[in-house]
Amino acid sequence: MAARILSKRGLDIKLRDLGCNLVALQNKNVVRTAASAAQATLSDFEIQHKQPLVKKTTPIPIALYGGRHAVTMLPGGGIGPELMGYVKQVFKYAGAPVDFELVDIDPKSDETNDLEYAITSIKRNGVCLKGNIETRSESTGVQSRNVAIRNELDLYVNVLHCHSYPGVPARQSNIDIIIIRQNTEGEYAMLEHESVDGVVESMKVVTQSNSERVARFAFEYARRNNRKKVTTIHKANIMKLSDGLFLETSRKIAKEYPDIEHNDMIIDNCCMQLVSNPHQFDVMIMTNLYGTIVSNVVCGLVGGAGLLSGKNYGDHYAMFEPGTRNTGTAIAGKNIANPIAMLSASIDMLDHLGHKQHSELISDALRKTICEEKIHTPDLGGTATSTEVVQRVIDHILQADIRAW
Amino acid sequence: MSIISRNVFKVLLRASPNVAARTIHTTAPNATLADLPDSRVNATLIPGDGVGPELVYAVQEVFKAAGVPVDFESYFFSEVNPTLSAPLEKVAASIAKNRVCLKGILATPDYSHTGELQTLNMKLRNELDLYANVVHVKSLPGVRSRHTNVDCVIIREQTEGEYSALEHETVKGVVECLKIVTAQKSQRIAKFAFDYATKNKRKKVTAVHKANIMKLGDGLFLRSCEAMAKLYPKIEFERMIVDNCTMQMVSNPQQFDVMVTPNLYGNIVDNLASGLVGGAGVVAGASYSADCVVFEPGARHTFSEAVGKNVANPTAMLLCSAKLLNHVNLPGYGEMIRNAVNKVLHDGKVRTKDIGGQSNTQEFTYAVIYNLQPLQKPTQ
Fold first, then answer.
1. CB-CB contact of A61 with B187 (8 Å)
2. Would you say A53 and A210 are in contact if contact means Cβ atoms under 8 Å apart?
3. Are B82 and B117 in a shared domain?
4. Best residue in A9, A14, A58, A65 to probe B by mutation, most B CBs within 10 Å?
5. Which residues are listed as membrane-spanning (chain B) (predicted)?
6. Are B126 and B3 found together in one domain?
7. Of A173, A218, A365, B195, which is the most buried if we count CB atoms within 10 A?
8. Residue B371 pLDDT
9. pLDDT tens string B74-102
């Protein structure tokens, strides 16, 4: 849907148009000229219904030269810029072979130029490290930037590895759950309209193709990481068709993975089980909205929003961000934001890029700081400032002195 | 002398990262950080032909004096002396393992011993897929040349085009030489150029071509560059025909920023541009694959007439080694060597013959060593 808005302007900067068939291109160009001439003539409904949800793109070679990767960095709003600064510091001392391309997006403007540039940049580099981007505008034409990026890049799955940090005060200990969430459709399809005055319909879209991709990803992930069980979270007792399709699809895929146990659970029961006995869960898959709720619940159990990192994957691109998508505007600039989430997102990124040595170096340093020395920011009940935590991590990196460039 | 200075530098350089790190907050430094274990970086070294071994020796002297924690795996690799040369597989395996290499220039004979058309240089590049050659042509302080303030980067595709080594005599007296251009490799080099420009905050990329004559071959290269340019809206893109480009280069080289070229044009433009700023002895370059980098002087000239005469200019090789150090995350040492070279050139007391002086290679090297100064803060 965001793509629909994007596609009206600056279509020519998108790579997929290079390989696209000519007819489609011309059609889009007609739409663009019409749209730029009279932006307001397209209704919200028309804006929403022009393009399919699953994008087909031509892969671009990723930016890897002489062992160094280029990665797009979107600091976003709130505490994003500070956290990115810490990541850069830590990478510098760890010698991580990554060059960041910084792209700032102005939260106040309704223009999509910055956003388009950010998306193009991710397409070029293949990988992105992202804070949470604010979207202040509330007009229907302006999309949430975060959703727009996910949809445009077709990052159809979000993976959140929820694990307890020993030494961090939390409600539950020894939690180790992987939440895999459909990231581009479901309730976030954002197809809303007012059919009669005073009656608003919001559509939840579940497609078989997307459900299948997510389920397959989940089982492959489980197999690769030696996980034993996959649980599908749904509400198919009420939404028999949409959630039913999601559940059926995951059951079908489960048959192809006989070595992994599969069961399902209704979302409301799941939330209760999570807070009472979270240890029964291993890998969980779910649709978009349930995913955001469940991941926030689990984050709360292990110690708050500042600890976990999330990974978004599509067929061609990967994006790494803090696990719970909060901007933290209230604590920005106070030097108390917890840097762990963003640092562990950057560790995930190094893992994804194949720089195992560096990711281990940084995660070891992080573990020593958080779990052994218990240097915590106020959100974990500690008294340390953000920079103190980062400084300690850097000290550990320097001490290890594995000159892994 | 060198042992003392080595240790002094080492201590200062080891301490300096902490100094910078401390600046982000004000708690007392951790005492345990002083005694760090010593870990070193491995790099492959290919001295090459001509004056290569002398220049490489200069680099090793400077590294020794500065206490640079780099160990070289040295291979004699040569096409003009095939019986003594290390096998290609062994050299390539070493570079693939170390991921960095410092290399002199290999002489390329006009005839082939074995009848093969591929030169050793080409074989090494193909073996490691070193597709992008980057030559940063920059005016140096104190080196007199025709132009000042030249600062351009020439990026050359070096695995296909005219260098495909596909030549044959179809009929007696008629030889065909195939120039291969592929969309995949053209896109790859175009993307490399634009990514390089983005990373180094450059403003403009110029594609050098001859698509008015070779409409299909160079046309494909040009179209690939144009398509890639659309993904980089913040970087200006222009195209220039190679003959015009060479003329512009000698009359007004300041107009160029990043240039992306196919193989043969790149070779010519590289050497031309090197001539503008002081010759083959002062320009550093590097060849990139996805995983490894080979640092070598920018102009491909072995200077074989000067072998053993102790007159060659080690500036290019020293700048290559500084780039190597930057690449392996030892920017402090890299900056130190670069500053020393610039200081020596700027002072102008010790100059080799090619840039109008009377000194020899050894004197220049010692002058650089004398001017090595540890940095207060690492610059990165």
1. yes
2. yes
3. yes
4. A65
5. none
6. yes
7. A218
8. 92
9. 999 998 888 889 999 999 999 999 999 99
The shortest C-alpha distance from A33 to chain B (Å) reads: 19
Six token digits for residue A281:
């869960």
Give dist(CA A76, CA A337) in Å, integer.
15
pLDDT per residue as tens digits for the range B195-211: 999 999 999 999 999 99
Using the beta-carbon criterion (under 8 Å), do B329 and A399 form an inter-chain contact?
no
CA distance B116 to chain A (A): 29
Helix (H/G/I), strand (E/B), else coil: A313: strand
- Chain B residues closer than 8 Å to A388 by CB: 25, 27
Does residue B141 belong to any structural domain of this protein? no
**Radius of gyration in angstroms for the set of CA atoms belonging to chain A, rounded to a whole number:** 22
Q: Locate tokens 């067929």: which residue?
A: A315
Nearest-angstrom CA–CA distance, B124 and B120: 6
Q: Is the pLDDT of residue A33 over 70?
A: no
Among A66, A89, A123, the residue with its CB nearest the CB of B327 is A66
pTM, rounded to two decimals: 0.82
A405/B293 touch (CB, cutoff 8 Å), yes or no: no
Segments forming the whole domain that contains residue B83: 1-130+283-380
CATH number for the domain harbouring residue B272: 3.40.718.10
ipTM: 0.78
Please tell me if residue B131 touches chain A, with a CB cutoff of 8 Å. no
**E strands present in chain B:** 41-46, 70-74, 100-103, 132-138, 151-157, 167-171, 174-177, 204-209, 236-241, 258-261, 284-288, 293-297
CB distance B36–A124 less than 8 Å? no
Is there a domain that residue B201 lies in? yes
State how many domains chain B has. Answer: 2
Of B292, B299, B321, B287, the closest CA to residue B92 belongs to B292
A99, B231 contact by CB (below 8 A): no
Instruction: Report whether B362 contacts B312 (CB < 8 A).
Output: no
- Of B276, B299, B330, the residue that ends a domain is B276
Task: Report yes or no: B101 and B295 within 8 Å, Cβ to Cβ.
Answer: yes
Nearest chain B residue (CA) to A385? B25
Indicate whether B175 and B269 sit together in one domain. yes
Shortest distance, CA B345 to any CA of chain A (angstroms)? 30
B260 touches chain A (CB under 8 A): no
Q: Is B185 a domain residue?
A: yes
Q: Largest Cα–Cα distance of chain A, in whole Å?
A: 67
| Cβ under 8 Å to A: B residues 279-298 | 286, 288-293
Tens digits of residue pLDDT in B10-24: 444 444 444 444 334
B36 with A402: Cβ contact below 8 A: no
Q: How many residues does chain A have?
A: 405
- Same domain? B12 vs B122: yes
Q: Which residues of A touch B197 (CB under 8 A)?
A: none
Chain B segment 168-227 residues within 8 A of A by beta carbon are 187-188, 191-192, 194-196, 198-199, 227
